[in-house]
Design brief:
By secondary structure, the protein is mainly alpha-helical. It is about 70% helix and about 0% strand. It has eight helices and no strands. The chain has helices spanning about 5-25, 35-45, 55-85, 105-115, 115-125, 135-140, 145-165, 165-175. Helix 2 (about 35-45) packs across helix 3. The protein is globular, with a radius of gyration of 20 Å.
Length: about 180
């Protein structure tokens, strides 16, 4: 197979996985998802000679870099809008969610959000993307042992955040042998 054929196969097979990966990390900004995914596959096209036989973890690594660029760009735009004083809150359009607007499992997302970006990423790669430790190592650009240690430490810190947020719930789970 040629590099072009390898790229076409990777695109067909992994487009939706990469799209989901990006969408989960741009929660609340769906308009940017297509843009970032297009950038991922543009990079993959330019580097199609470098595509490994199992390209998904490599594509996730490219997506990670493209997301970092998108987040930096979003931050720059947000700061510019804030300086210009043209944001929604300045025009009285700030809307607060009601008390029953909380989505199921929101506390897990809240606990995850309290972790460092590095901890969040390693946990998401294993939980959301269902990658094994070897694949996580490829995405993160580190060795298998380092990826395994990062995952172990991130899980420990997530557990500590959950314990801090709802100590009665976790104590009850431990009593029943679930924790």
């Amino acid at each position: 197979m040629s590099n072009d054929d390898d790229f076409a196969a990777a695109y067909r097979e992994h487009y939706w996985a990469v799209s989901r990966y990006v969408a989960r990390r741009l929660d609340g900004r769906p308009s940017e998802v297509e843009e970032v995914v297009a950038e991922v596959f543009t990079v993959a096209w330019r580097r199609r000679a470098d595509l490994p036989p199992a390209p998904l973890p490599w594509l996730y690594g490219v997506a990670r870099n493209c997301l970092a660029n998108a987040v930096r760009g979003h931050g720059r735009r947000r700061r510019l809008v804030d300086r210009l004083g043209n944001d929604d809150t300045a025009h009285g359009r700030h809307i607060e969610a009601g008390p029953d607007a909380e989505t199921p499992g929101a506390w897990v997302h809240e606990a995850l959000a309290r972790l460092s970006p590095a901890d969040q990423e390693v946990l998401r790669l294993t939980a959301w993307e269902e990658l094994g430790i070897e694949e996580v190592a490829v995405v993160l650009g580190c060795g298998r042992r380092a990826a395994s240690m990062r995952l172990h430490r991130a899980r420990r810190r997530l557990r500590a955040e959950i314990d801090r947020m709802c100590p009665t719930t976790t104590a009850a789970l431990k009593e029943n042998g679930h924790g």
